[in-house]
Amino acid sequence: MANLHDLSALEQGAAIARREITSLELTNHYLDRAERLDVEVGGFALRTPNEARLQAENADADVDRQGLSPLHGVVIPPKDLNAWAGVQCRVGSAAFHFIPQADDHVVSRMKEAGFVFTGKTNTPELGLPAYTEPEIAPAARTPFDLSRTAGGSSGGAAAAVAAGLAAAAVGSDGGGSIRIPASCCGVVGIKPSRGRVSNGPSGESVGELGVQGPIARTVADAAAILDVLSVPSVGGELRAPALARGNSFVQAAQNPTQRLRIGRFATPIIVECTVDAEVLQGYEATSALLESLGHDVVDIASPFPKDVFSYFEILWSSLTAAIEFEDEQFAQLRPLTMWLYEKGQSVTGAQLSRTVSRLRTIAREAIVQMSDVDVVLTPTLAQLPPTIGAIRNDEDPAADFQAQCEFTPFTSPFNMTGQPAVSLPLHWTSTGIPVGMQFIGRPFDEVTLISLAAQLEQAQPWRDRHPAMW
């Protein structure tokens, strides 16, 4: 048998079900790798070997039970923004250190599916930046070049998966935080439709930007995790339409896609910025690949007005300002967080109301303008992963925020629209740096995205591209 971490998450789950390996054996394998390698990668904010081994033993005891998830017993950790009952939560910040009394809905779904948590993955303070460089943990780095960022805010999750420290992981995405690190680390990241995965028990934040979704090495693994996460929770929250009876996202990864009409943008969205030549090369190569597979690729105009970024900035800062801090906590915040908080505090209720209303209108109009294509293609990022510290600017947080926007001009618009999106590692530089390509689907149409992603994975495989530490 190959090394355990060479197997996909679904292959590991099948091997556990056949009793070829045990969940405890698999868990110890990943715990050992994280102990040896995570100091370089920064994948975990916290490692939990005792809890992991107990979960694995319980998974092994249940292995003959009917109706188990195909990922039962597999190591798939949550993020340090998730509430895991009895385990400390820092939300990437020196200002917070608390122990949740209950699991959030995503962690509950993961536990019900028999996932094993070897820890909580690394995230920047409150999940706000597009890089993962918290004060309380090492910076998360792409395993393909340890001088470069793994992105954020699910940077730890993507780094851990890419380095073979976990089979897959679950991240969250309010402006690109699943897709950005997926691109930096050469893995698959799915941002589901708004309402597909419960954010409960917390209420939805103003603007409903944030969603939670899978990060994995293969499309099928990501789809199988999305099947687990998308089980509805009881409550009055927004829900995406259920799939037809008997269907699943993992089935979509096994079904060939039909011929699609795919739109592509000629210019960046939101901010005027420079798109790296390697990114453009990957964009053109991906367009050609799509055409070679029989899809119709057409240029479309950006449906977003140039002032949309100003509305997003108001909303993002207002969300930060809505967090309650004690005085001693505020003093421990990073300069970027303080800047966003103070900026948000200056936003009036009327201004926030107008902003949310305007963004809703922009989103609806954008969806209508894109309705004549099945899928939209963009690069995931405008630039290659920058070196650690290159974007972070504690002396000038406004410049820090602007640099993040120029790095990630293609992601946040689709948090505004609530559409599903996936980043796929379809291009690599001559020095082995991954460059993700983003595909956006119609609202609630993850099935088409996953089927297309699986077709692209088969046509141009990436699973066996490993960093040197593999």
From TrEMBL:
Q: Which residues form the signal peptide?
A: none
**Molecular functions per Gene Ontology:** catalytic activity
Source organism per entry reads: freshwater metagenome
A Pfam family annotated for this chain is: Amidase
- What stretch or stretches form a coiled coil here? none
Q: Which PANTHER family match?
A: GLUTAMYL-TRNA(GLN) AMIDOTRANSFERASE SUBUNIT A, MITOCHONDRIAL (PTHR11895:SF7), TRANSAMIDASE (PTHR11895)
Q: Under which name does UniProt file this protein?
A: Unannotated protein
Please name the InterPro entries in this protein's record.
Amidase (IPR000120), Amidase_CS (IPR020556), Amidase_dom (IPR023631), AS_sf (IPR036928)
User: In this protein, which residues make up the domain named Amidase?
Assistant: 25-449
